[in-house]
Amino acid sequence: MEQPVAPKPRSGCRRRLLLLAAFAAIVIAAWRVLAVKPFTVPQGARMSPALNAGQTAYLDRVSYLIIAPHRGDMAAVAAPANPLGFVIMRVVAVPGETVEVKDGALRIDGAAVAESYARGRLPPRMSVGPVRVARGSYFVLPDDRVYAAADSRPGPMVRRRDIVARVSPAGR
User: What is the reported pTM?
Assistant: First the structure.
């Protein structure tokens, strides 16, 4: 009669499980750092009517790792002095475009820009350009244009590396 063969111990199985658990922990940690995060729009964000104080919005830190910001995007721009660490601005011109602000009007490549998202006109005392947006830079403004000239926040020309996330209102 043959004796039954005892199964071999599976030390490799434990090792695989530990590696899988470590990999899962790394993926979860990376997702929490890079993922879309909700935040409450603070008072003084100057992005109405698109975003109002107290409204929930989302920071998408992943999109701009894959694609470049586009004209019209709402973006979080690094601002270490701000309690949130960023401010919200609208991308109004991208690298290679020529921007001009004159008599309260925004012009891109010589053409007037219709900004349905903007509230008010830029103050006449705010005059820019014409200036070409350099590679690696973006021209940004708050949507509430009345405050644009007095705004001490970053801008209007910011570096690409200072744009930390795409912003979108909750429900969109």
Answer: 0.72
